[in-house]
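Chain A, query sequence.
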Amino acid sequence: MSRLRPLLLPAIIIVLAATAYIVRIQKEMVDFSVYRTAAIRAIDGEPLYLAADGHYQFKYFPAFAFAMAPFAGLDEEAAKVIWFAMSVGLLSALVRWAVRALPERRRSERTLAWLAVILMGKFYAHELNLGQTNILLGTILIAALLASQIEMRSTAGALVAIGVFVKPYAVVLLPWLALVAGAPGLLVAAGVLVVGLAAPAAVYGWAGNLDQLAAWYRTVTDTSEPNLLMPENISFATMWAKWIGPGEAATGLAVATGLVALVLAVIVMRRRGQLSDPGYLEFGLLMLLVPLLSPQGWDYVLLLATPAILCLVDRLPEMSRPWRVATIAALALMSFTIFDLLGRTLYTKLMAISIVSVAACVLAAALGYLRWRELA
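Chain A, predicted structure.
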């Protein structure tokens, strides 16, 4: 019986995941369908970015459409099953690796893993339901973090660059990469980015590839404003638009808030001091800021903040009482502002005042506090 005990938790996870897929998720995964459609178009050399696709336009670099090509030749239902199974496996790796990468842990690996699942569970579930790619991105980027910790600088650079093709907002990690991987990491990252941007020319030709990249830029910029006031958008742009209404003032305040957040990141990176492994907190902070900085920052993108949340809950007992109370309150608001839990009225009111965005800002400040006190 003792030999079977390590297999118990994986077995439970597999059963729960399979049940969730059969009962609900197989009917959803709308975002995965976007990637698969883009892959089919890429193989045939067709345009990837079509306004006729409406809300479900492809918004990633052309290289990612080609990366999804193995799913293009599969029956849609079979492709969905495989993608879902891959995502569940990658999610397990994401949580385990994020826990193990945390330096000088105060809590056990098991405790931290469960806390991650409890606090980030709603984001993980939403991601799986949509068939999104943030779990894939998070796993790739945490692999880059692990590579940086063992001085595999070129590998870290390559992985961050690969992440950019999964989700372009991974570029926010380039300053961190410069710190932890230096010139070798940046050079490799630059090389991978150049190759990835140029590779689709093999199908589209040079001029056609440039047309696709220009279409990508137009798609991203043109679709930002219509999504600005969506309840689940937690970006700084949305936060200010909800508070004072869309317009130049809201845009200016969003830019200013984004600059303040980036200044915080710079201050955190400059206060590395004598810490043995400062890269983890810096990585976590930048990942937490991703959905706040992106105009299309959906709440489930906060799953990328798993390292940030682990760092905070691990160091929570060492915080001063005011910071501990603020951090716990922010975690509760971010993690448990759930429609099914709060009901339509309260949930709608909280999302209308961007409570999740505010909570994320408090958590970013708490990470700054940890660095100021040299706790992480």
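The mean pLDDT is 92. Residues 226-376 form one domain.
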